[in-house]
Design goal:
DUF4253 domain-containing protein, three-stranded antiparallel sheet, DUF4253, 8 strands, 2 domains
Length: about 190
């Protein structure tokens, strides 16, 4: 297990990691993360609230590599529909051996398309094997990843994404060409199933 030794602290559990992040972020960790649009709590994880997606992504990229190997970090709930209503987003730290556990913690699925969490993992694993992806955000019906390497055949990738997640074009970009252009500029993909 990788141990982070900054400031003489060994981060070998969720508790010590959350205590370290409390110091780094200047706020107390929430003793849970949320799922189902913030309506449900998972008390096996911890979370922080941050002001924006941009801040959340920055913190994930800044701290993720410093975590022990048995923990994952990602941006969680951004769309609050439960009793908790926030203007910010959730930064989640939880137990996981790989980025696929991010989807399990977030309980991400595409229920309207009869696609469950494990189905999503299977599809995203194919993308990861082909060119490499890095999941930065996951919540109830959304997953955002960036590329380790841009696909060689971007059109084929975008067409495949469209078949897997029609809302990305039908409710988003409007055409495969516009989707391709956006991917080339931002170098990440946000999939959601409405």
């Amino acid at each position: 297990m990788k141990v982070h030794r900054e400031k003489g602290k060994e981060m070998n559990s969720l508790l010590t990691t959350s205590a370290w992040l409390e110091e780094e972020l200047g706020q107390k960790a929430r003793p849970y993360s949320t799922y189902d649009f913030g309506r449900q709590k998972d008390e096996q994880q911890v979370s922080f609230l941050v002001d924006s997606l941009e801040t959340g992504f920055h913190l994930v990229l800044q701290y993720r590599e410093k975590l022990p190997k048995d923990l994952v970090m990602f941006v969680g709930t951004t769309n609050w529909l439960g009793e908790e209503r926030h203007h910010g987003v959730e930064l989640v730290i939880g137990y996981g051996k790989s980025q696929w556990d991010i989807l399990r913690i977030a309980r991400t699925d595409a229920a309207n398309y009869n696609i469950n969490t494990e189905d999503l993992i299977t599809k995203l694993s194919q993308y990861h094997q082909q060119f490499g992806i890095d999941i930065l955000q996951a919540e109830t019906d959304t997953v955002l990843f960036d590329f380790i390497q841009l696909p060689n055949d971007l059109r084929a990738f975008c067409e495949d994404c469209y078949r897997f997640c029609p809302d990305i074009v039908d409710q988003g970009f409007g055409s495969i060409e516009d989707f391709m252009e956006a991917v080339e500029v931002v170098l990440f993909v946000r999939l959601w199933w409405d």
